[in-house]
Amino acid sequence: MGFKDLLAYTKGFELSMLIFETSKSFPKEETYALTDQIRKSSRSVCANISEAYIKRRYPKHFISKLTDADGENSETSTWLDFALACEYVSKEKYADFIKQNKEIGKLINYMINNPEKFGVKTEN
Length: 124
Description:
It contains four helices and no strands. With about 120 residues, it is an all-alpha fold. It has a single domain (about 5-115), classed as 23S rRNA-intervening sequence (de novo design (two linked rop proteins), Up-down Bundle). The longest helix has 27 residues, at about 60-85.
């Protein structure tokens, strides 16, 4: 199994791509602000999960990178709040994105709390 098979990674990738497609309709003046930030944070979730998984032989690194992924996921949630407040996304789309975002957070936290289930050798 590789990192692309992890549920947190696949769901994170899916949400990132949905955000990318949606953000194409954001106003031009948001290109280097909200659009750039929400794309970066949503993509960073997957990048940190992949790095954590590749370095899973080092338990502290695994947890640290997953903590970074969780932080980026939370940042994405904040940018979604701004997108809703600025009326760049509908309430329905926002609700769907936030639901997916919360699920990804739960999956990441499961990995953090159960590293041995992902090939990490933990001390007993």
